[in-house]
Amino acid sequence: MQFLLTEDQRKLQDTVHDFAQAKIAPVAEQLDKDAKFPTVLFHELSELGLTSIPFEEKWGGMGLGTFETALALEQVARADQSLAVGTMVSISTGLTLARFGSEEQKEKYLPDIVSGKKICSIAGTEPQAGSDTAGLTTSARLDGNIWRMNGEKAWITNSGTDISSFALVLAVTSPVEAPKKSFTLFLVPVGTKGYTVGKSYDKMGWRSSDTHPLHFDDCELSPDHIVGELDKGRLLLHKGYQQARVFLATCSLGLAQGCLDHAVSYAKERKAFGGTLGGLQMIQKMIADIAVKVETARLVVYKAAWMTDKGLASLKDLSVAKYYATEIATECANLALQVHGGWGFMDDCPVSRYLRDNRICTIGDGSSQIQAMIIARDLGLEVSFT
Ligand SMILES: Cc1cc2nc3c(=O)[nH]c(=O)nc-3n(C[C@H](O)[C@H](O)[C@H](O)COP(=O)(O)OP(=O)(O)OC[C@H]3O[C@@H](n4cnc5c(N)ncnc54)[C@H](O)[C@@H]3O)c2cc1C
Question: 30, 32, 113, 146 - which has most CB atoms within 10 Å?
Answer without folding.
Answer: 113
